[in-house]
Amino acid sequence: MTYVVTDNCIMCKYTDCVEVCPVDCFYEGENTLVIHPDECIDCGVCEPECPADAIRPDTEPDMEKWVEFNRKYSEQWPVITQKKDPMPTAAEMDGTPDKLEKYFSPLPGDGD
To answer: Where are the annotated segments for Disordered (predicted)?
Structure first.
């Protein structure tokens, strides 16, 4: 099992999860985060820390695409290990549907 970041993180990018991760398996894109599924130790401490409820275990239905999404971008983006401010749009974008199709940017973030 692994945990993955889903589309509700897009345009929010809260980093509360990053701060509690014991193995530094979060990677930063321009407007979202991902978890490297092969580095995640399945401890689950990140899931309740996410204000946007965007982190899910891969055992939930239809998570295969999110596992591959997280794997792909974690291999391209820089690691992030420290908490940062969320995106300015975080509060208004939290819960917006179809964020992957409408707002996702494949560009890397700054990392640490």
So the answer is: 86-112
